[in-house]
Amino acid sequence: MLAQQFLHKRSTRRLILLQHLRLALAHNNSRKRGPLREGGRLDLDSLTEEEWRNQFRFTQSEVEELVEVLQLPNPIRANNRITEDRRTALCMLLARLAYPNHLCDLALKFGWPVERVSHISTATQTIIHDQWEHLLCWDAARLTPDRLVKYAHAIEQKGAPIGTVWGFIDGMIRGIARPTYHQCTCYNGWKRKHCLKYHGIVTPDGLISHLFGPVDGRRNDAFLWQESNLPNILERNAYAPNGTPLQVYGDPAYSINSFILSPYQGARLTNDQKQWNRSMSRLRIVAEWAFKEIVNTFGFLDFVKNQKHLLQPVGVQFRVAVLLHNAHVCLHKPQVTQYLNIENVNIVEGLMEDELLEPPLLSEYFHN
Which cofactors (predicted)? Predict the structure, then answer.
C-alpha cells in the first residue's frame, strides 16, 4: 500500500514537471517566432487589388495567371514534407521578396507560421528556377534574327549612330552580409563591400534577356564575359536574317569584336568619337534602369544584412527575382520601353514601331 502511494505521488510530480516544461517551451517558442495573426490565416480573396499590389507586387488576377504559366505543381511540397496550395505558395514567395520583412512580420500579417513561410517559399523558388532558368541563358524561340533586327532598329531610331546594336550588357553588384568563411573571395575592392556579381543583357522591350551569375565579388566584368560562354552563344545566334553580325553594347570594361562594342577610350578622342560615346551612353543607361527596377520591385534583395549566401540560396533567389521581374514587365509597361518608344510612327516590315517594343505576353515568355 505504501509502495503504491509512493509511486502515485512520484508519477504525479513527474506529470506536473512535464506540464511546466511544456508551458515553458511554448512560451519560449512564442517569444522566438512571434505571435500569429489573430483569427488565424488571412483570407487572400478578401484583399483589395491595391492591397495585392502592395503586398505581392501583382494583382490577384495576375498572380493566378502567373501560377498557370509557371506550371507550378499543386500542392507545393517542401523538403520537410509540408504542403501548400500553389497560389498561396507563390504569394508567400512574393511577400517575402516584396519588402525586407522578417518572417515573424509575415506571420503577424498573414497568419502563416514562420517555418512554413521559410520552407514553402524556398521550395517554390527552387521549382521556378529549375523549370525556367533556360530563359535567362538564351531564349532561342524569342530571340530570333528577325526580333534582334527589330531591337536594333528601335535603338537606331532613338539616336544610336549604328544600326546593328540590339541590346545593352552591364554588370551588377549585389551586396551580401559579411560571410564567416572565405571573406576575401566575396570582397570587392572597388565598391569596398562583400558582394556577388552578375551580368545581364537588357533589350528594348524592357526584358533582361540574358543573366549570368552569381560569381565571387572580387571578379571583374571581363571574367564574367568569358565564364558565361556568352561569346560562343552570340557567335551562334546574334545574326540578322541576311547574315550580318549584330552586337551588344557595354561599358569600357568589355572588349570589341564582331558581337560586342564598347566606347572609344583614350585622352585624345576626335569630336566624332566623343559624339559616338555620348550618343551610346544616353542609350546604355536603360541597362541601369532595368537593374534598378528589380530592386525597386523586390526590396528584400536590397536588405544586405539578410543576404547570407552561406546560409540560404541567395543566387537562386536573385535569379528567380529576375524571372518575376520579367513577368512584371510583360504585364506592365516598363520605364525602358517608355524611353525607347518612338513618337514618330514608322512602318517597319508592316508593323508600327511602338508595337515592336511591346514585351511579350506571359504565355509567350514562359514557354517550354
Answer: a divalent metal cation
Is 250 in contact with 243 (CB distance < 8 Å)?
no
Distances (CA, A) of 353 to 25, 162, 358: 65, 18, 9
Rounded Cα distance between 178 and 186, Å, is: 8
Rounded distance between C-alpha atoms, residue 368 and residue 358, angstroms:
21
Using CA atoms, how far apart are residues 324 and 343, in angstroms rounded to an integer? 29
pTM of the model: 0.87
Cell numbers at residue 22, please?
511544456
Q: Rounded distance, CA 303 to CA 100, Å?
A: 6
Angle at 254 between CA 211 and CA 238, to 5 degrees: 60
Residues facing residue 260 across a β-bridge = 248, 257
pLDDT at 18 over 70: no
Angle at CA of residue 167, ends 162 and 173, nearest 5°: 130
| pLDDT score of 25 | 46
Residue 149: band (very low, low, confident or very high) from pLDDT cuts 50, 70, 90? very high
CA within 13 Å, CB half, 355: 8
Task: Name the maximum alpha-carbon separation found in the chain.
Answer: 110
Cβ atoms within 10 Å, residue 338: 11
> Omega of the bond prior to 252 within 30 degrees of 0, cis?
no
Q: What pairs with residue 261 in β-bridges?
A: 249
Instruction: Give the integer Cα–Cα distance in Å for 281 and 176.
Output: 29
Segment 101-120, tens digit of pLDDT: 888 888 888 988 899 999 99
Amino acid identity of 155?
A: I
Cα-based distances in Å from 65 to 70, 263, 327: 9, 42, 10
